[in-house]
Write a structure and sequence with these properties.
Helix content is about 45%, strand content about 20%. By secondary structure, the chain is α/β, with parallel strands linked by helices. α2 links the parallel β1 and β2. α4 packs parallel to α6 and α8 packs across α10.
Length: about 325
């Protein structure tokens, strides 16, 4: 395997076996995750994704499986909210659930990622100052209630005025992440990132190429980290019969992100990378990663992966690897 491909894939996948279309029971999904992180391909795997409301269930039923001499890493999902009041109540509940989980299994578990959708009414108004206030209050609550460092990632729905929503949210995230004196003032809440939903179980749940390209451009231009979720089981964009639409590929999305971050690409070029359905366009050499005539070094790739494109949630760990094998890359 080329070094660049290994850098591209390292800790790229968060295991989301609890979610559609797999919809596994916790009793099946969690042992699968433990097997994956002990297998030969463990280097590709990152966190186990679980709703914070199910952390107690996980501890009650499967706590005996937690290793004694290692720390398991989780990404906790917050509850969706109808409005700001609902959002903060749910956030408080999630933080309590995380704290209880940590207290019960000290040094054996770490919920260090937190993913939550911002309330739709706030995004629809698309006022970056209002969103920033929500982010600041969220960070204050994390500082007060979280048991340790927590990296929040905020998701939004693509509404009718979706460009305004993406623009306001990324502006608010960037402003929230930068303080006037250059110092981060929160002790537990890390700098906030963007969560990009790339699909689902129905065709209408898949964002358009335009929506993904614009989101990536805004993430890159505001120097944000992002993680993705849903619909990225396969490396290359393709038509999928089961959902009757084209699915985004993780080579496309994360290839566009890392190239965009280093080369400062704009929406039009990102769109072209995202829509490419030819695996041969993505080239992993010993010291460089390329899409057609655009190329970055392996060192630049590693930097962009660490700072920009972090990971994506997938309910399958087998499908991505099977596709890579079919392409002769794995």
């Amino acid at each position: 395997m080329q070094r660049t491909l290994k850098v591209f894939l390292t800790e790229l996948i968060d295991y989301a076996g609890l979610f559609p279309p797999a919809n596994l029971q916790l009793s099946e999904a969690f042992p699968k995750y433990l097997a994956y992180i002990q297998g030969l391909d463990a280097w590709m795997m990152s966190r186990f994704i679980i709703p914070t409301a199910r952390l107690i269930e996980l501890g009650d039923n499967h706590g005996t499986l937690f290793p004694e001499n290692a720390t398991l890493h989780f990404s906790g999902l917050g509850k969706p909210s109808k409005n700001s009041e609902d959002y903060f109540n749910n956030l408080s509940s999630s933080l309590t659930e995380i704290r209880t989980f940590h207290q019960r299994f000290p040094n054996r578990v770490q919920v260090d990622f937190f993913e939550v959708k911002l309330p739709g009414d706030v995004i629809e108004r698309a006022r970056d100052e209002e969103i920033r206030e929500l982010l600041e209050k969220s960070a204050d609550m994390i500082d007060d209630q979280a048991p340790g460092l927590l990296n929040p990632f905020y998701e939004i729905d693509f509404l009718q005025n979706w460009r305004d929503g993406v623009d306001a949210t990324t502006k608010a995230l960037a402003a929230h992440n930068v303080t006037t004196d250059g110092n981060w003032t929160h002790s537990k809440s890390r700098r906030a990132g963007f969560k990009l939903r790339c699909g689902g179980i129905k065709a209408e749940m898949f964002p358009s190429l335009e929506q993904v390209a614009y989101s990536l451009e805004e993430v890159i231009s505001h120097d944000l980290s992002f993680k993705a979720t849903a619909g990225l089981h396969h490396p290359i964009r393709h038509y999928n019969e089961s959902v009757q639409t084209k699915m985004h590929g993780f080579f496309n999305v994360f290839g566009a992100a890392v190239l965009g971050a280093i080369l400062e690409l704009k929406e039009e070029k990102l769109h072209k990378i995202l829509q490419d359905e030819q695996a041969s366009s993505f080239v992993f050499k010993k010291d460089s990663f390329s899409w057609k005539d655009l190329s970055i070094t392996v060192e630049q790739l590693e930097t962009a992966r660490q700072k920009c494109g972090l990971s994506f949630g997938s309910c399958s760990f087998d499908e991505p690897r099977d596709d890579l094998k079919e392409l002769g890359l794995f």
